[in-house]
Amino acid sequence: MKTNVNKLKPSERMKIPRQVSIEQSPDERKHNFNEVSFGVDEERALIEAARCLECQNPVCQDGCPVSIDIRSFIQMIYLKDYIGAVNKIRESNYLPAICGRVCPQEEQCEKVCTLGKKHDPVAIGKLERFVADYEFKHNLFTPPVIKDNRPEKIAVVGSGPAGLTCAAELAKLGYKVTVFEALHAVGGVLRYGIPEFRLPRNILDLEIERIKALGVKVETNFLVGRTATIDEFLKEWDFDAIFLGTGAGTPQFMEIPGESLNGVYSANEFLTRVNLMKAYKFPEYDTPVKIGKSVAVIGGGNTAMDAVRTSKRLGAEHAYLIYRRSRTEMPARLEEVHHAEEEGIEFMMLTNPTRILGDQNGYVNAIECQKMVLGEPDESGRRKPIPSNEPKFIIEVQNVIEAVGQSPNPIIQSTTPGLKTGRKGVVVTNDVQHTSRAGIFAGGDLSRGGATVILAMRDGKIAAKEIHQYLQQKNNK
Q1: In whole angstroms, what is the distance from residue 222 CA to residue 29 CA?
Q2: Which of 49, 253, 444, 470 could bridge 78 with an S-S bond, Cβ 3.0-4.6 Å?
Protein backbone atom coordinates (compact mmCIF):
# COMPACT_ATOMS: atom_id res chain seq x y z
CA MET A 1 0.00 0.00 0.00
CA LYS A 2 1.42 3.35 -1.06
CA THR A 3 -0.94 5.63 0.89
CA ASN A 4 -1.22 5.95 4.65
CA VAL A 5 -4.18 4.25 6.31
CA ASN A 6 -3.59 5.37 9.91
CA LYS A 7 -5.16 8.76 10.69
CA LEU A 8 -3.19 9.24 13.91
CA LYS A 9 -0.44 11.83 13.81
CA PRO A 10 3.12 10.46 14.09
CA SER A 11 3.45 12.19 17.47
CA GLU A 12 0.35 10.32 18.69
CA ARG A 13 1.66 6.99 17.43
CA MET A 14 4.94 7.52 19.27
CA LYS A 15 3.09 7.77 22.58
CA ILE A 16 1.59 4.26 22.20
CA PRO A 17 3.65 1.77 24.26
CA ARG A 18 5.03 -1.31 22.53
CA GLN A 19 2.80 -4.33 23.15
CA VAL A 20 4.22 -7.40 24.86
CA SER A 21 3.42 -11.06 24.36
CA ILE A 22 1.18 -13.04 26.67
CA GLU A 23 3.38 -15.71 28.29
CA GLN A 24 3.39 -18.65 30.66
CA SER A 25 4.73 -17.72 34.07
CA PRO A 26 8.37 -18.74 34.64
CA ASP A 27 7.44 -20.99 37.58
CA GLU A 28 5.08 -22.96 35.36
CA ARG A 29 6.99 -23.12 32.12
CA LYS A 30 10.33 -24.27 33.55
CA HIS A 31 8.61 -27.56 34.35
CA ASN A 32 6.99 -28.16 30.94
CA PHE A 33 7.75 -28.09 27.22
CA ASN A 34 4.69 -26.08 26.21
CA GLU A 35 5.28 -22.91 24.23
CA VAL A 36 6.53 -20.08 26.44
CA SER A 37 4.87 -17.27 24.49
CA PHE A 38 1.26 -17.15 23.37
CA GLY A 39 1.97 -14.14 21.17
CA VAL A 40 -0.27 -11.07 21.06
CA ASP A 41 -4.05 -11.21 20.86
CA GLU A 42 -6.12 -9.23 18.35
CA GLU A 43 -6.47 -6.22 20.64
CA ARG A 44 -2.72 -5.96 21.20
CA ALA A 45 -1.99 -6.58 17.51
CA LEU A 46 -4.23 -3.69 16.48
CA ILE A 47 -2.61 -1.39 19.03
CA GLU A 48 0.86 -2.43 17.87
CA ALA A 49 -0.04 -1.96 14.20
CA ALA A 50 -1.16 1.59 15.04
CA ARG A 51 2.40 2.39 16.17
CA CYS A 52 3.83 1.94 12.65
CA LEU A 53 4.85 5.29 11.13
CA GLU A 54 4.09 4.07 7.58
CA CYS A 55 7.44 5.41 6.40
CA GLN A 56 7.67 6.43 2.75
CA ASN A 57 11.08 4.76 2.74
CA PRO A 58 10.45 1.63 4.82
CA VAL A 59 13.96 0.71 5.93
CA CYS A 60 12.52 -2.23 7.88
CA GLN A 61 12.10 -4.05 4.57
CA ASP A 62 15.79 -3.47 3.80
CA GLY A 63 16.62 -4.97 7.19
CA CYS A 64 14.68 -8.17 6.41
CA PRO A 65 16.87 -10.84 4.78
CA VAL A 66 13.94 -12.02 2.63
CA SER A 67 12.60 -8.51 1.92
CA ILE A 68 9.07 -8.82 3.33
CA ASP A 69 6.87 -5.82 2.51
CA ILE A 70 6.53 -5.01 6.21
CA ARG A 71 4.84 -1.65 5.80
CA SER A 72 2.03 -3.15 3.71
CA PHE A 73 1.35 -6.15 5.91
CA ILE A 74 1.17 -3.97 9.04
CA GLN A 75 -1.23 -1.62 7.26
CA MET A 76 -3.43 -4.62 6.45
CA ILE A 77 -3.45 -5.58 10.12
CA TYR A 78 -4.51 -2.04 11.02
CA LEU A 79 -7.41 -2.48 8.58
CA LYS A 80 -8.20 -5.89 10.14
CA ASP A 81 -7.37 -7.67 6.87
CA TYR A 82 -5.40 -10.39 8.63
CA ILE A 83 -5.49 -12.90 5.78
CA GLY A 84 -4.37 -10.23 3.33
CA ALA A 85 -1.49 -9.54 5.72
CA VAL A 86 -0.32 -13.13 5.99
CA ASN A 87 -0.58 -13.57 2.23
CA LYS A 88 1.49 -10.42 1.77
CA ILE A 89 4.16 -11.96 4.03
CA ARG A 90 3.98 -15.25 2.18
CA GLU A 91 4.86 -13.51 -1.08
CA SER A 92 8.38 -13.21 0.34
CA ASN A 93 8.47 -15.75 3.17
CA TYR A 94 6.57 -19.03 2.97
CA LEU A 95 7.16 -19.87 6.66
CA PRO A 96 5.54 -16.96 8.55
CA ALA A 97 4.41 -18.93 11.61
CA ILE A 98 7.97 -20.17 12.10
CA CYS A 99 9.75 -16.88 11.46
CA GLY A 100 7.31 -15.03 13.71
CA ARG A 101 8.61 -17.24 16.52
CA VAL A 102 12.33 -17.80 15.96
CA CYS A 103 13.58 -15.03 13.65
CA PRO A 104 15.93 -12.53 15.40
CA GLN A 105 13.91 -9.47 14.40
CA GLU A 106 15.68 -7.35 17.02
CA GLU A 107 18.89 -7.65 14.97
CA GLN A 108 17.25 -7.15 11.57
CA CYS A 109 13.98 -5.43 10.66
CA GLU A 110 13.27 -4.04 14.12
CA LYS A 111 16.86 -2.86 14.55
CA VAL A 112 16.48 -0.37 11.71
CA CYS A 113 12.84 0.59 12.42
CA THR A 114 12.52 4.38 12.25
CA LEU A 115 10.35 4.46 15.37
CA GLY A 116 13.08 2.61 17.21
CA LYS A 117 15.51 5.52 16.92
CA LYS A 118 13.81 7.32 19.83
CA HIS A 119 11.27 4.78 21.10
CA ASP A 120 10.77 1.01 21.15
CA PRO A 121 10.61 -0.32 17.57
CA VAL A 122 7.42 -1.79 16.16
CA ALA A 123 7.07 -5.45 17.24
CA ILE A 124 7.24 -6.73 13.66
CA GLY A 125 7.89 -10.35 14.62
CA LYS A 126 4.94 -10.49 16.99
CA LEU A 127 2.65 -9.09 14.27
CA GLU A 128 3.93 -11.65 11.77
CA ARG A 129 3.18 -14.43 14.21
CA PHE A 130 -0.26 -12.99 14.99
CA VAL A 131 -1.52 -13.12 11.40
CA ALA A 132 -0.02 -16.56 10.77
CA ASP A 133 -1.67 -17.93 13.91
CA TYR A 134 -4.97 -16.19 13.07
CA GLU A 135 -5.02 -17.92 9.69
CA PHE A 136 -4.31 -21.27 11.36
CA LYS A 137 -6.92 -20.89 14.12
CA HIS A 138 -9.65 -19.92 11.65
CA ASN A 139 -8.63 -22.47 9.00
CA LEU A 140 -8.39 -19.79 6.30
CA PHE A 141 -5.30 -20.95 4.40
CA THR A 142 -5.63 -21.35 0.64
CA PRO A 143 -2.58 -22.34 -1.43
CA PRO A 144 -1.60 -19.94 -4.19
CA VAL A 145 -2.66 -20.68 -7.75
CA ILE A 146 0.30 -22.04 -9.70
CA LYS A 147 -0.02 -20.77 -13.25
CA ASP A 148 2.82 -22.66 -14.93
CA ASN A 149 3.48 -26.38 -15.18
CA ARG A 150 7.13 -26.76 -16.02
CA PRO A 151 8.65 -30.10 -17.04
CA GLU A 152 11.96 -29.73 -15.22
CA LYS A 153 12.66 -31.82 -12.11
CA ILE A 154 14.56 -30.35 -9.19
CA ALA A 155 15.99 -32.17 -6.16
CA VAL A 156 16.23 -30.35 -2.84
CA VAL A 157 18.55 -32.15 -0.42
CA GLY A 158 17.72 -31.41 3.20
CA SER A 159 14.40 -30.25 4.68
CA GLY A 160 15.56 -27.47 6.98
CA PRO A 161 14.67 -23.80 6.49
CA ALA A 162 16.90 -23.39 3.41
CA GLY A 163 15.57 -26.50 1.68
CA LEU A 164 11.91 -25.89 2.53
CA THR A 165 12.10 -22.29 1.31
CA CYS A 166 13.85 -23.25 -1.92
CA ALA A 167 11.29 -26.01 -2.54
CA ALA A 168 8.35 -23.67 -1.93
CA GLU A 169 9.69 -20.92 -4.21
CA LEU A 170 10.40 -23.37 -7.03
CA ALA A 171 7.02 -25.06 -6.66
CA LYS A 172 5.29 -21.67 -6.93
CA LEU A 173 7.07 -21.26 -10.28
CA GLY A 174 5.63 -24.56 -11.48
CA TYR A 175 8.66 -26.85 -11.16
CA LYS A 176 8.45 -30.50 -10.08
CA VAL A 177 10.28 -30.51 -6.75
CA THR A 178 11.28 -33.44 -4.54
CA VAL A 179 12.78 -32.89 -1.09
CA PHE A 180 15.10 -35.61 0.23
CA GLU A 181 15.54 -35.87 4.01
CA ALA A 182 18.00 -38.22 5.74
CA LEU A 183 15.96 -38.50 8.94
CA HIS A 184 12.52 -40.02 9.42
CA ALA A 185 10.86 -36.64 9.98
CA VAL A 186 10.90 -33.42 7.97
CA GLY A 187 12.14 -30.07 9.25
CA GLY A 188 15.90 -30.33 9.74
CA VAL A 189 17.19 -28.05 12.50
CA LEU A 190 13.66 -26.69 12.97
CA ARG A 191 12.68 -30.14 14.29
CA TYR A 192 15.79 -31.53 15.97
CA GLY A 193 17.46 -28.31 17.08
CA ILE A 194 14.73 -25.98 18.36
CA PRO A 195 12.78 -27.08 21.46
CA GLU A 196 9.00 -27.38 21.58
CA PHE A 197 8.79 -24.48 24.01
CA ARG A 198 10.07 -22.16 21.26
CA LEU A 199 8.63 -23.84 18.17
CA PRO A 200 5.74 -26.27 18.74
CA ARG A 201 5.79 -29.26 16.43
CA ASN A 202 2.19 -28.73 15.32
CA ILE A 203 3.25 -25.33 13.93
CA LEU A 204 6.21 -26.88 12.10
CA ASP A 205 4.03 -29.69 10.75
CA LEU A 206 1.47 -27.15 9.58
CA GLU A 207 4.04 -25.15 7.62
CA ILE A 208 5.40 -28.33 6.03
CA GLU A 209 1.90 -29.42 4.95
CA ARG A 210 1.42 -26.03 3.31
CA ILE A 211 4.57 -26.57 1.29
CA LYS A 212 3.35 -30.02 0.28
CA ALA A 213 0.10 -28.35 -0.81
CA LEU A 214 2.16 -26.63 -3.52
CA GLY A 215 2.86 -30.07 -5.03
CA VAL A 216 6.25 -30.63 -3.37
CA LYS A 217 7.07 -34.31 -2.84
CA VAL A 218 9.05 -35.43 0.22
CA GLU A 219 11.24 -38.52 0.59
CA THR A 220 12.40 -39.30 4.14
CA ASN A 221 15.03 -41.82 5.31
CA PHE A 222 17.02 -40.95 2.20
CA LEU A 223 20.69 -40.17 2.82
CA VAL A 224 22.04 -38.45 -0.26
CA GLY A 225 25.63 -39.53 -0.80
CA ARG A 226 24.75 -43.06 0.36
CA THR A 227 21.26 -43.98 -0.87
CA ALA A 228 22.08 -42.14 -4.10
CA THR A 229 24.83 -39.69 -5.03
CA ILE A 230 24.48 -36.23 -6.53
CA ASP A 231 25.85 -37.48 -9.86
CA GLU A 232 23.31 -40.31 -9.86
CA PHE A 233 20.59 -37.72 -9.31
CA LEU A 234 21.78 -35.84 -12.41
CA LYS A 235 22.56 -38.79 -14.70
CA GLU A 236 20.15 -41.56 -13.67
CA TRP A 237 17.30 -39.78 -11.88
CA ASP A 238 17.12 -37.05 -14.53
CA PHE A 239 17.06 -34.10 -12.16
CA ASP A 240 17.77 -30.84 -13.99
CA ALA A 241 19.11 -28.96 -10.96
CA ILE A 242 19.90 -29.65 -7.32
CA PHE A 243 19.82 -27.52 -4.19
CA LEU A 244 21.89 -28.66 -1.21
CA GLY A 245 20.63 -27.57 2.19
CA THR A 246 21.84 -30.29 4.54
CA GLY A 247 22.83 -27.95 7.36
CA ALA A 248 25.67 -28.28 9.83
CA GLY A 249 24.97 -31.27 12.04
CA THR A 250 28.50 -32.34 12.99
CA PRO A 251 29.32 -30.99 16.46
CA GLN A 252 32.56 -29.30 17.40
CA PHE A 253 34.21 -29.74 20.79
CA MET A 254 36.53 -27.62 22.93
CA GLU A 255 39.19 -30.37 22.96
CA ILE A 256 39.77 -30.16 26.69
CA PRO A 257 40.56 -33.13 28.97
CA GLY A 258 37.58 -35.20 30.10
CA GLU A 259 35.33 -34.87 27.05
CA SER A 260 35.07 -38.66 26.69
CA LEU A 261 33.51 -39.07 30.16
CA ASN A 262 29.98 -40.37 30.53
CA GLY A 263 27.57 -37.46 30.93
CA VAL A 264 29.22 -35.23 28.30
CA TYR A 265 27.00 -34.37 25.34
CA SER A 266 27.29 -32.21 22.30
CA ALA A 267 24.33 -29.84 22.19
CA ASN A 268 23.45 -31.36 18.83
CA GLU A 269 23.09 -34.87 20.26
CA PHE A 270 21.35 -33.65 23.39
CA LEU A 271 18.76 -31.54 21.58
CA THR A 272 18.20 -34.19 18.90
CA ARG A 273 17.45 -36.79 21.57
CA VAL A 274 15.04 -34.46 23.31
CA ASN A 275 13.37 -32.73 20.36
CA LEU A 276 13.31 -35.32 17.59
CA MET A 277 13.30 -38.50 19.66
CA LYS A 278 11.18 -37.03 22.49
CA ALA A 279 13.42 -38.03 25.38
CA TYR A 280 11.47 -35.66 27.61
CA LYS A 281 8.52 -38.05 27.30
CA PHE A 282 10.45 -41.14 28.50
CA PRO A 283 9.32 -43.88 29.06
CA GLU A 284 6.50 -43.17 26.59
CA TYR A 285 9.32 -42.70 24.04
CA ASP A 286 12.27 -45.05 24.45
CA THR A 287 15.10 -42.49 24.25
CA PRO A 288 16.16 -41.57 27.78
CA VAL A 289 18.56 -38.73 28.57
CA LYS A 290 20.18 -38.94 31.98
CA ILE A 291 20.33 -35.50 33.56
CA GLY A 292 21.89 -34.96 36.97
CA LYS A 293 21.21 -32.47 39.72
CA SER A 294 23.61 -29.93 38.18
CA VAL A 295 24.30 -29.34 34.47
CA ALA A 296 26.85 -27.07 32.79
CA VAL A 297 26.18 -25.86 29.25
CA ILE A 298 29.12 -24.27 27.46
CA GLY A 299 28.44 -21.54 24.90
CA GLY A 300 26.60 -18.27 24.39
CA GLY A 301 24.46 -18.74 21.30
CA ASN A 302 20.85 -19.76 20.76
CA THR A 303 21.81 -23.45 20.75
CA ALA A 304 23.42 -23.09 24.17
CA MET A 305 20.35 -21.24 25.41
CA ASP A 306 18.07 -23.99 24.11
CA ALA A 307 20.21 -26.67 25.75
CA VAL A 308 20.41 -25.02 29.18
CA ARG A 309 16.68 -24.22 29.28
CA THR A 310 15.91 -27.79 28.20
CA SER A 311 18.14 -29.11 31.00
CA LYS A 312 16.12 -27.11 33.51
CA ARG A 313 12.91 -28.63 32.18
CA LEU A 314 14.37 -32.13 32.45
CA GLY A 315 14.86 -31.65 36.18
CA ALA A 316 18.25 -30.04 36.75
CA GLU A 317 18.21 -28.06 39.99
CA HIS A 318 21.22 -26.03 38.86
CA ALA A 319 21.53 -25.28 35.15
CA TYR A 320 24.69 -23.25 34.51
CA LEU A 321 25.38 -21.34 31.30
CA ILE A 322 29.15 -20.93 31.01
CA TYR A 323 30.34 -18.34 28.49
CA ARG A 324 33.85 -17.03 27.99
CA ARG A 325 32.84 -13.48 27.07
CA SER A 326 30.49 -11.01 28.75
CA ARG A 327 26.74 -10.81 28.28
CA THR A 328 27.20 -7.93 25.82
CA GLU A 329 29.00 -10.24 23.37
CA MET A 330 26.51 -13.12 23.63
CA PRO A 331 25.07 -13.98 20.18
CA ALA A 332 21.88 -15.46 21.66
CA ARG A 333 18.61 -13.60 21.15
CA LEU A 334 17.86 -11.10 23.91
CA GLU A 335 14.37 -12.55 24.37
CA GLU A 336 15.80 -16.03 24.95
CA VAL A 337 18.35 -14.69 27.44
CA HIS A 338 15.58 -12.85 29.27
CA HIS A 339 13.41 -15.98 29.39
CA ALA A 340 16.36 -18.04 30.64
CA GLU A 341 17.02 -15.60 33.47
CA GLU A 342 13.35 -15.71 34.46
CA GLU A 343 13.51 -19.51 34.56
CA GLY A 344 16.43 -19.55 36.97
CA ILE A 345 19.30 -20.32 34.63
CA GLU A 346 22.58 -19.46 36.37
CA PHE A 347 24.81 -17.40 34.07
CA MET A 348 28.57 -17.60 34.50
CA MET A 349 30.01 -14.90 32.27
CA LEU A 350 33.71 -14.41 31.49
CA THR A 351 34.29 -18.04 32.42
CA ASN A 352 36.05 -20.70 30.33
CA PRO A 353 36.16 -24.47 31.10
CA THR A 354 39.65 -25.94 31.17
CA ARG A 355 38.88 -29.61 31.93
CA ILE A 356 36.05 -31.97 32.84
CA LEU A 357 36.53 -34.19 35.89
CA GLY A 358 35.10 -37.65 36.50
CA ASP A 359 34.71 -40.29 39.19
CA GLN A 360 36.28 -43.75 39.33
CA ASN A 361 33.49 -45.14 37.16
CA GLY A 362 34.06 -42.69 34.32
CA TYR A 363 31.11 -40.37 35.00
CA VAL A 364 31.28 -36.58 35.11
CA ASN A 365 31.32 -35.13 38.60
CA ALA A 366 32.79 -31.63 38.11
CA ILE A 367 34.11 -29.07 35.67
CA GLU A 368 37.19 -26.90 36.18
CA CYS A 369 36.97 -23.29 35.00
CA GLN A 370 39.12 -20.20 34.55
CA LYS A 371 37.87 -16.62 34.87
CA MET A 372 38.53 -14.51 31.78
CA VAL A 373 39.01 -10.85 30.91
CA LEU A 374 38.33 -9.16 27.57
CA GLY A 375 41.24 -8.02 25.42
CA GLU A 376 41.36 -6.51 21.94
CA PRO A 377 38.75 -7.43 19.28
CA ASP A 378 39.40 -10.63 17.29
CA GLU A 379 38.39 -11.53 13.72
CA SER A 380 34.72 -11.69 14.76
CA GLY A 381 34.82 -8.07 15.88
CA ARG A 382 34.20 -9.04 19.49
CA ARG A 383 36.76 -8.50 22.24
CA LYS A 384 38.91 -11.59 22.64
CA PRO A 385 38.69 -13.39 26.00
CA ILE A 386 42.04 -14.02 27.69
CA PRO A 387 42.73 -15.84 31.00
CA SER A 388 42.74 -13.70 34.15
CA ASN A 389 45.21 -14.01 36.97
CA GLU A 390 42.59 -15.53 39.26
CA PRO A 391 43.03 -19.18 40.31
CA LYS A 392 41.00 -21.87 38.58
CA PHE A 393 37.92 -23.16 40.37
CA ILE A 394 35.69 -26.23 40.39
CA ILE A 395 31.92 -26.56 39.92
CA GLU A 396 30.23 -29.85 40.81
CA VAL A 397 28.10 -31.04 37.89
CA GLN A 398 26.88 -34.38 36.60
CA ASN A 399 26.53 -33.34 32.96
CA VAL A 400 28.40 -31.10 30.54
CA ILE A 401 26.77 -30.04 27.28
CA GLU A 402 28.99 -28.33 24.70
CA ALA A 403 27.39 -25.82 22.34
CA VAL A 404 30.51 -24.32 20.80
CA GLY A 405 29.74 -24.69 17.10
CA GLN A 406 29.12 -27.27 14.43
CA SER A 407 30.15 -28.02 10.88
CA PRO A 408 28.56 -29.75 7.88
CA ASN A 409 28.33 -33.52 7.56
CA PRO A 410 30.98 -34.42 4.93
CA ILE A 411 29.07 -37.17 3.10
CA ILE A 412 27.89 -35.12 0.11
CA GLN A 413 31.20 -33.30 -0.23
CA SER A 414 33.16 -36.57 -0.20
CA THR A 415 30.92 -38.26 -2.79
CA THR A 416 30.55 -35.37 -5.25
CA PRO A 417 33.67 -34.86 -7.42
CA GLY A 418 34.43 -31.26 -8.28
CA LEU A 419 32.33 -29.78 -5.47
CA LYS A 420 34.55 -27.10 -3.93
CA THR A 421 34.63 -26.90 -0.15
CA GLY A 422 36.10 -24.40 2.29
CA ARG A 423 36.98 -24.16 5.97
CA LYS A 424 35.43 -26.88 8.15
CA GLY A 425 33.86 -28.54 5.12
CA VAL A 426 31.40 -25.83 4.09
CA VAL A 427 30.34 -25.95 0.45
CA VAL A 428 31.64 -22.89 -1.37
CA THR A 429 29.08 -20.84 -3.31
CA ASN A 430 29.08 -17.54 -5.17
CA ASP A 431 26.79 -14.62 -4.30
CA VAL A 432 23.78 -16.37 -5.85
CA GLN A 433 24.30 -19.76 -4.16
CA HIS A 434 25.80 -21.55 -7.19
CA THR A 435 28.49 -24.09 -6.30
CA SER A 436 31.54 -25.03 -8.35
CA ARG A 437 29.41 -27.63 -10.18
CA ALA A 438 26.99 -26.58 -12.91
CA GLY A 439 23.36 -26.98 -11.88
CA ILE A 440 24.21 -27.56 -8.22
CA PHE A 441 23.33 -24.85 -5.70
CA ALA A 442 23.73 -24.74 -1.92
CA GLY A 443 22.77 -22.61 1.05
CA GLY A 444 22.01 -22.37 4.73
CA ASP A 445 24.42 -23.76 7.30
CA LEU A 446 25.98 -26.06 4.67
CA SER A 447 27.51 -23.00 2.99
CA ARG A 448 27.63 -20.68 6.02
CA GLY A 449 28.82 -23.09 8.71
CA GLY A 450 26.14 -22.04 11.20
CA ALA A 451 23.72 -19.12 11.05
CA THR A 452 20.11 -18.14 11.69
CA VAL A 453 16.93 -19.67 10.31
CA ILE A 454 16.09 -16.52 8.34
CA LEU A 455 19.52 -16.35 6.68
CA ALA A 456 19.10 -19.98 5.61
CA MET A 457 15.72 -19.05 4.17
CA ARG A 458 17.31 -16.13 2.34
CA ASP A 459 19.80 -18.52 0.73
CA GLY A 460 17.01 -20.89 -0.30
CA LYS A 461 15.02 -18.05 -1.82
CA ILE A 462 17.99 -16.68 -3.78
CA ALA A 463 18.90 -20.18 -4.95
CA ALA A 464 15.36 -20.81 -6.24
CA LYS A 465 15.50 -17.61 -8.29
CA GLU A 466 18.89 -18.56 -9.69
CA ILE A 467 17.84 -22.14 -10.45
CA HIS A 468 14.93 -20.71 -12.43
CA GLN A 469 17.25 -18.44 -14.41
CA TYR A 470 19.77 -21.25 -14.90
CA LEU A 471 17.10 -23.55 -16.37
CA GLN A 472 15.65 -20.79 -18.54
CA GLN A 473 19.07 -20.04 -20.00
CA LYS A 474 19.77 -23.74 -20.46
CA ASN A 475 16.51 -24.21 -22.36
CA ASN A 476 17.20 -21.21 -24.59
CA LYS A 477 20.57 -22.51 -25.81
Answers
A1: 36
A2: 49
Q: How many Cα atoms are found within 13 Å in the side-chain-facing hemisphere of 20? A: 5
Comparing CA positions, the residue from 75, 70, 77, 73 lying closest to residue 111 is 70
Helix (H, G, I), strand (E, B) or coil at 378: coil
Secondary structure of the chain: what % helix, strand, coil (to 5)?
35, 15, 45
pLDDT tens digits, 193-250: 999 999 999 999 999 999 999 999 999 999 999 999 999 999 999 999 999 999 998 9
What is the three-class DSSP state of 258? coil
Asked if residue 393 and residue 283 are part of one domain, the reply reads: yes
* Most distant CA pair in the chain, distance: 73
CATH number where 104 lies: 1.10.1060.10
Question: Which pLDDT tens digit goes with each residue over 17-31?
Answer: 999 999 999 999 999
212 in the same domain as 74: no
Report the half-sphere exposure of 385 (CA within 13 A, side-chain side). Answer: 17
Read off the pTM. 0.94
